[in-house]
Amino acid sequence: MAASADKEDMICLNDRLGDVVAKVDKLRSGSGQDSSTFIKTIDCLKDEIKKIKTAYDLELSRLRPVLCPPLINLQRILNRK
Question: In the chain, where are the structural domains located?
Answer without folding.
Answer: 2-80
